[in-house]
Amino acid sequence: MTEFRALSGGVTTWSPPVQPRRLQLGWTSMDAGDVAHLDRLARRIDAPGPVALVDPLARNLLSGAQGAGIGASAKWAWTGNDIILYGGDFGPHVPVTVSVENVPASLGPDLYWQHPVWPGYPVTPGMVVTWWTPGLVANGAPVAQHRMQWIDAAGTVTSTATSTGAAPVVRTVPAGAAFVRPAVRFSAVGLWELGASIFATGDVSAELVPGAPVAVGEGCPAFSITRYSHAASPGDGRYRDIGLELVEVTR
User: Fold this and answer.
1) Which of 104, 139, 217, 243 stands 20 to 30 A from 83 (CA)?
2) Coil, strand or helix: which one is 45?
3) 244 pairs with which residues across the strands?
4) pTM here?
5) Which residues pair with 232 in a beta bridge?
C-alpha cells in the first residue's frame, strides 16, 4: 500500500491490483539427493520455470474466488454447450450461477475447477487429497459425482477418482500423477448458485460438516526462484544448507 499526502493534509492510498506473494524456505543438513533436486530447479537446468510448490499448511488450495464461487468464469471449464456459467463475469464479487442445459445419455456434464497455470493442481504420488463442493450440495444441485482427474507430467489424463455427490471424496494420489483437476458431474438440468468448494491436502473430511464454514481458498500459485544459497553444512561436508527465495508468478 502506497500513501500520498497532499499539502492540504488529505491522504490518498493506492494499492496495485495484483499482490504477488513472496516465500522464503531454508533447510540445514540436507541429503545429497534432495540437494540435487532443488539445485536443478534453482538453476533452471530442465526448464525456465515456474516451479510448483504445495504448501502443506494451506487449508484450501483453490483460489480465493474459486473457493467462494465468485469471479470470472475462466476459473472453471466444461465441454460443449451442456453447461453455462452466469454472473461472475459482471464483477469480481458477483456469485457464479451454474446452469445445466443438457444431460447427455453417456458422460457428463462435468464442471472443472481450473488451475491458472498448469493442467491441474500439482500433486505427488502418495499424497492424500480431499475434494468437495458443499455450496452446490447445500443449494440442492443434482451432483451425481465428485471427480478428480489424475494427469501426468505431459498433461494426459491417466485415470479418474469418483464418489457420490453427497460426501467429500478423499483419495491417495496414484503413481505417475503430477496434477489433479477436481470436477463435479451433474445428473439433471437446472440452475444453482455455485457457492463454496474446497480442495485440500490430507483427509479433512471430518471437518466438512454440512452447514459449517469452509476454509477460505489460499491458492496454489506458481513461483519463480529469485535467490538461491548453497553451502556445506558445518562439520560434515556431505550435507548442504540450502536457502530459496521465491516470488509468485501472476497472470
Assistant:
1) 217
2) coil
3) 25, 228
4) 0.88
5) 240
